[in-house]
Write a structure and sequence with these properties.
268 residues, elongated, mainly alpha, 11 helices, 75% helix
């Protein structure tokens, strides 16, 4: 007979589906899987397995009723879509995009607009680090999500086009950059034609139109069409002379220098 009484242990009840403990366990698991999925040192197959496990883990968690927030699901699916696109798995990426769009129906409109803006911001940061391929994938994801959620015209669409054109130009795809700039210019002119814009917004939009035209001229000049680019630069200089810009302003000087270089190229 033992000299002391053995302590009785009671089985620990599992954490409730929506309890803080359950939520923490879920987030910890997802964080570890994300670490694997985003680790460039990991083999591609390992990263794909991590992503698939994240999907299954999320499905199991949703099946228990947690976290019970469609906005969480919506953001989660978009992240999966972006990572899978970067990994080149288009079929699975498109599946996640459709799930994100479906989940977004329950999210308030400002949240959906914010998501497009957030992806645009991420693309800008990636491009600033010369990670152009990743930036372009994120921009394409934002464009697809915006179109599927809001329709052909959606908030931040024109800003996505601006950044896409910059990336295309930076990677020397000048013909594609020209096409995107023309699309951007059309949308910006449509915005400028709206009568409900106040004077401040009209001035801002006009400046953006000028910058878009400059980008268009840059893309055309890079393709060797000097005379066409020269005409656009000349139009820009004329517009700037009749605006608040003065010859000593950096923007005016920059375009004047491009105009002179293009003129020399055309004459030669």
């Amino acid at each position: 007979m033992w000299p002391f009484k053995q302590r009785e242990t009671k089985p620990t009840a599992p954490a409730a589906a929506n309890s803080p403990a359950s939520e923490k366990e879920f987030l910890d698991s997802v964080s570890k899987l994300y670490a694997l999925a985003f680790d460039d040192a990991m083999p591609l197959e390992v990263r794909k397995v991590a992503l698939l496990e994240m999907t299954q883990h999320q499905a199991r968690h949703q099946g228990t009723g947690a976290p019970g927030d469609q906005r969480f699901e919506h953001a989660y699916r978009l992240k999966l879509f972006i990572v899978l696109s970067l990994l080149g798995d288009r079929a699975l990426a498109e599946q996640q995009l459709q799930l994100a769009v479906t989940a977004s129906y329950a999210a308030p409109s400002p949240d959906k607009q914010k998501k497009v803006g957030s992806m645009n911001d991420l693309a800008q940061k990636l491009a600033a680090q010369n990670r152009f391929h990743e930036a372009e994938v994120v921009l394409q994801a934002a464009m697809k999500y915006g179109t599927a959620t809001f329709g052909p015209e959606f908030p931040d669409q024109v800003n996505l086009l601006t950044n896409h054109a910059i990336i295309l130009f930076s990677t020397r795809r000048y013909r594609e950059a020209e096409a995107v700039r023309r699309q951007e210019l059309l949308l910006r002119k449509q915005d400028a034609a709206r009568v409900n814009l106040d004077a401040n917004m009209q001035a801002i939009n006009q400046t953006r139109i000028l910058l878009c035209q400059e980008g268009l001229a840059d893309a055309i000049a890079a393709q060797g069409r000097s005379k066409e680019a020269l005409d656009i630069y000349g139009t820009l200089l004329h517009a700037l002379q009749n605006s608040c810009y003065t010859p000593d302003r950096p923007g005016f000087q920059r375009i004047r220098e491009k105009h002179e270089r293009c003129k020399v190229s055309w004459q030669n």
